Amino acid sequence: MNWGNSNKKLTLKSVMLVITGLLILSCILMVIYAMRARRYNEKSIELSKLHMKYTEIASALNSGSHTLTEQARLFAETGDVAHLYNYFEEVNYVKRRDKAMDELEKISVPDNAREHIESSMNASIELMQREYYSMKLTAISYNIAKYKLPAEIQSVELSLEDRALTAEEMREKARIILFDDDYMEMKKLIAEGTTKFLDTMQEDSKYEYLRLTKKVSMYVNILRLTIMAVLILILSMTIFQYTFVVRPIVKASQSISRGERIEMPRFLEEMNSLCTSYNSLMDDNEKLVKKLWIIAETDALTKIGNRTAYNDYCKKLHKEGGETILFVFDVNGLRELNNSLGHNDGDKLLRRAAECIVSVFEKDGEENCFRIGGDEFVAFIRGEAEENAEKYVEEFKNEQENKNVKIAVGFKYTEDIKNTSIHEMFVEADKMMYIDKAETKA
Length: 442
What we know:
Number of strands: 4
Mean pLDDT: 88
Shape: rod-shaped
Distance between the termini: 70 Å
């Protein structure tokens, strides 16, 4: 895989810092937007609670007014002082209307809404005067002792005309006061006032509620997008790490186990440095191995292949097969020269002998000539017929005269060396070489 060779390199550290920074930033934004969404939601909840409070205030005022009306009417119908006491228990102890108005003072209410609820309260208070008068008539008509009556009823003064009424007429008038058109109109005013109060408050806060709802919705949507961005960043970081770090390292490990060069993303400085360093080390190692291999298979004196190289070449021939001529050589006079002039001159003779053999038998740079002993050499010619062996021998004799060296030679041919014992060929060629050596001495 080609990872590119751009001169501009990114560091893995910088990439991870950028992604991590974006993740941290996204998380911070998530917290901010979550807090804002929560704040506006709390305001929306507070507004809803305030609406409930408005409803409770209106309901308390209506409920208190209804209770007074109900108890006043029951007292007028039955003359039972229990209803009278229930009435004043609401007025003096329960005080739903008064408490509702006190709660109203604690919250912010527009003037027009306040006017509506106060008009209901005033109407309810005004009705109480009619109810007091009705209850005074009822109390007198039923001959209820004065000490049983609340102070508010005791203080009510009847008109001369009403005092002159009979008990039955008083009870009838008491009922009429609580059911006539004027009374019902006042009750209607109370209900309308509380209704207008609620409508005004609802209308006044409707736009604020819509604004808060939009804000909450906006921040929730932004929060969702931010969460998606975080997920995308995490996914991107995972894909990036797998694609450009984990997978290349795994492939590099496999390449190393196979002894191959590795490939890494070149645009990442750390990966490029790792790749370059390892491949450079591998190149140096290959050069060293090759150098050591050459040293191991090269005769130090003559610079041609040694016995190890000869053995490897024989294996190669057996594997590939084909026509092959094996030549065996022996340098004449080496021992005498060593004894008379010394080993330095003997070494020079061996080098000239190697040069003579290579110049005739080495073809197209193929390393097919070997020194396998002190003065013994071997050469192989592949892919040529047996009759060409004599031509090589003749050419070799001429080359010996040029190099001023005497070398005995013998050879053996085979049509397919894959099915032939090289050792047996060597023995036959060696016999021929010794015959040539004897003839040379003679």
